[in-house]
Design a protein that fits this description.
mainly alpha; two-stranded antiparallel sheet; 67% helix; globular
């Protein structure tokens, strides 16, 4: 049986740890790992974008969309959004438990974290919520340009949240 939480010199995590270290160090000042590269405005923009993947933001967005869909008698769409979000949350928790991968300690954490690092709950739930909503809006639209816009925006938001989580 495959055990993703295997650690040690022969384990999968050694490679992942090396990738983490190299990537994290590449985004930090060499003389001060606590300081991310980029100007103060770049750091603030990254903080703001990563907040779009925060549980509070995603819950508010999802709740608002669910309320709108139910008020307008789109119960099938509401069930889709609810099941996708709940399923993504459950899958994220199960994967975190299965991998049980600690967060890298190479740089200071900017917020309190109590769960393991993989998969990133922020990145995974952002993908679930934004891509579900983008696909739903694209399906409800009749114009090709609007479909491309909705799906493209969802993909862009997902990628930006994921990238800023690492930064």
């Amino acid at each position: 049986m495959f055990e993703p939480s295997l650690r040690g010199p022969q384990g999968l995590s050694t490679f992942a740890d090396a990738v983490d270290e190299r990537l994290l160090r590449s985004l930090r000042h060499p003389d001060n790992p606590a300081e991310p590269l980029g100007s103060r405005s770049v750091q603030e923009a990254a903080r703001d974008i990563t907040a779009l993947g925060g549980y509070a933001i995603l819950a508010l967005l999802t709740g608002s969309v669910l309320a709108y869909l139910l008020m307008n008698h789109h119960s099938h769409a509401a069930v889709l959004v609810f099941c996708a979000t709940a399923g993504g949350t459950l899958l994220s928790s199960l994967l975190k438990s299965a991998y049980d991968r600690p967060r890298p300690d190479l740089v200071p954490h900017l917020t309190h974290v109590s769960t393991s690092s993989f998969p990133s709950g922020h990145a995974m739930l952002s993908a679930v919520v934004y891509l579900t909503l983008g696909a739903l809006l694209a399906r409800l639209s009749s114009k090709r340009r609007a479909k491309v816009f909705f799906v493209g925006t969802a993909i862009l938001l997902t990628l930006m949240v994921g990238a800023t989580r690492v930064y």
